[in-house]
């Protein structure tokens, strides 16, 4: 494994590695909430990095030069595997990655993530994980700063509320990494950096899920968690403003997923206020909707403050909610709240037997499931979300976000008899 000290742009990551080890969860609630961050706590890396290139050779030249992505395990394509203290676990061993890669790659899914499908649809180069890069050449076609288990809010805020983050990585760290990359690109030539920033797509999020899970792990009530919303949205705003100041012209900001439909939270709060139509927990979905309203309000302010830029919103909530409400319409099974991979128990999720552990097994047909491991989505669900994002955000400035781009990743309504 390459030493973190060999990465010229990642000195701050070396400091993070010297943080105290993460504590073992002491309560059932803590173990449940920790599952969203398990791939960073248990990740490993062997030999040289896997550099997957998904784009078909027949894809036309991309109008978008590359993608710069920030986020958590819903977007992390390898960074979590680069931390020395977090080298073993579910996403680094079978059955993770079985559907597309045929082996684990550190992605928290059976296959590709939403960002992988967007990369493929736009015909751009696969993103370099930040912790795998060394030179300006490594980063010129895009970077993935996302880390599984990352929070939007920093440890100081969380600890002021009596909470302990899952991992020592927040949006502040990812913003610092972005500055490092920007400086490295600028060291080649200022115009070089300017061209890359102006012609790339910046995806800021999804981020915030772990902030709420950290809160729930500390026995914070949903009502109290609602007070986190302005702080989380403010942190997202800071990162968006930072990439715009660096020269970004096109920024996509994904919203919050429907928290109340996650199998691990459903298993935790079985006595919650379930919606009779969807089976999801209403108070948790209300929290997600509050988050998204605040996020959209903030994005409106940024659009007014930055005319001439394209600031887009990705409705992850709506995309996932559609699958929950009408699974058969999209080719999924009639039990959309059950996990494909896991142990026994409600929703096929067991807090003591997470996907990949002894005694657990993956379902025979992952493409028919929305949830992969009770916390993260299947490749099929991720494809659906990517397709919905591309369809909604076919902005004139993104001339590669066309029907052809969507066709490349198989976007179509799959009707099931």
TrEMBL record:
<keyword id="KW-0732">Signal</keyword>
<dbReference type="InterPro" id="IPR036514">
    <property type="entry name" value="SGNH_hydro_sf"/>
</dbReference>
<keyword id="KW-0325">Glycoprotein</keyword>
<dbReference type="GO" id="GO:0016788">
    <property type="term" value="F:hydrolase activity, acting on ester bonds"/>
</dbReference>
<keyword id="KW-0378">Hydrolase</keyword>
<protein>
    <recommendedName>
        <fullName>GDSL esterase/lipase</fullName>
    </recommendedName>
</protein>
<dbReference type="InterPro" id="IPR035669">
    <property type="entry name" value="SGNH_plant_lipase-like"/>
</dbReference>
<dbReference type="InterPro" id="IPR001087">
    <property type="entry name" value="GDSL"/>
</dbReference>
<comment type="similarity">
    <text>Belongs to the 'GDSL' lipolytic enzyme family.</text>
</comment>
<dbReference type="Pfam" id="PF00657">
    <property type="entry name" value="Lipase_GDSL"/>
</dbReference>
